[in-house]
Amino acid sequence: MRVYLPATVSMLRTLNDGGELAAIGGTAFALTPALRESYATGGDEELEYAAMLDAARASLRLLQAELDADPDTLMRRAVVSADVDGAVLRPDLDHSVVKLAGPVPLKAVAAVHFDTEDAEPAVRAAAAVIDAADLGDPDAEFTLGDAEDHDLAWYAAQELPFLLELL
Fold first, then answer.
1. Which residues contact 35 (CB under 8 A, 6 or more apart)?
2. Given this model, what pLDDT does residue 156 score?
3. Distance of CA 72 to CAs 13, 64, 67, Å?
4. Global pTM?
5. Quick one: pLDDT at residue 92?
6. Dihedrals φ, ψ of 34, to 5°?
7. Which of 73, 113, 124, 153 could form a disulfide with 79 if both were Cys (CB 3.0 to 4.6 A apart)?
8. How far is CA 156 from CA 80, 112, 153, in A?
């Protein structure tokens, strides 16, 4: 199953240095039957993209937690896409949520999706209001939309060391 793991720069460094990535709480996102049923239309590619965007939103929460601990945190969303076995569907949590059996090895990573530098101010603002946006605050939803207007850049797994070196 192709899964999308929310991440941060520090998590990408761990993946690069340690050869595996442990999803926080084992949580990842995927094209699940519940996600497919929640959309009236859309092919697999569009629905995979929706799952990736769910992971990008989760990345905002991880970024805010890191920012609370370290004001120098690089505010860029990161999503790691990987092909894994043993993911368990968790529609009780959300349409696209899955729980992973364990850490994801680097060899299972298909790609890394990462914000470009120009997204940083919008990502910082969105991370601060993500919970309010989820609760329906229209101003927070607008701020979140500004961050989501920035497309994540795509990097092949073998490009990860070079991506991190350039930061």
1. 47, 50, 51, 95, 96
2. 96
3. 16, 11, 7
4. 0.93
5. 83
6. -65, -40
7. 113
8. 10, 6, 10
Type of residue found at 131: D
Helix, strand or coil for residue 88? Answer: strand
Give the chain's end-to-end CA distance (angstroms, integer): 30
Decide: 79 and 152 in contact? Cβ < 8 Å: yes
Separation of alpha carbons 110 and 28, rounded Å: 14
Residue 85, judged by CB atoms within 10 A of its CB (0-12, 13-18, 19+), counts as exposed
CA angle 83, 87, 88 (to 5 degrees): 160
**Among 67, 49, 71, which residue's Cα sits nearest to residue 126?**
67
pLDDT for 41: 75
Helix residue spans in 19-100 (DSSP H): 33-38, 44-69
Amino acid at 8: T
Helix (H, G, I), strand (E, B) or coil at 53: helix
